[in-house]
Amino acid sequence: MVVTLPLPEPVTGSFAKHLSPEAYKVLVDAGVRQTYPAGTPLFHQGDPTRHVILIEDGWVKVTATSRRGWTAVLALRGPGDIVGEMSALDGRPRMATVATLTEATGVVILSDRLDACIVKEPSVALAISRHLANSLRESDRQRMQFGSSNGDGRLIVFLVDLMDRTGKPEPGGAVRIELGLSQQDLASSVGVSREVVARTMRVLRSRKTVQTGRRLIVVLQPDVLRALGRSVSMSTEAP
Asked: Going by fewer Cβ within 10 Å, which terminus of the chain is more open, N or C?
């Protein structure tokens, strides 16, 4: 049995936000807790494995690679999120690769134990359904942004999302984003070239909106960045 520990607050909209404390405990007790260093692959695209991982701490990125070798960052997942649920549900090979961005702790739950959890606590199935619906809505919103805004705008909206979901407040009102994302990760998250990312970040730095370091972004003026993001996203909200 896995002992439930005090953990970071689940990310808003995450899988765990849809679970009661009792249902969460049922899931945690069904698995084995593991801690992974940054840069550790959890799943590989095409793997036949069917277990899921309930992320308790840290962040992971979900990527997929086309037959021509182009890799896209599909999503970032953090505390309270679940990864690997699609293969656990349909038994098909992994659609994406999942790797840790930071050191991460998660509970590994085998597919048969997940099935048993659903039988014991049916609200787990409802939480998975809501999680999948949120993922679909997120995907729809991203497609709308791709069709109705330029690359600079999409990157700014993405930075606002990173700031709100993963940022750590600093003295003076700044927010630190330290997930280890490269410029290429940022580019493939919003469907632009690395040159577009470099240009946009250069403009934001010149306006004292952000400060950057190696795989580090500090948002110096969060309200300014949010205002820029709102101006882009107002016409791209999914219904």
From this structure: C
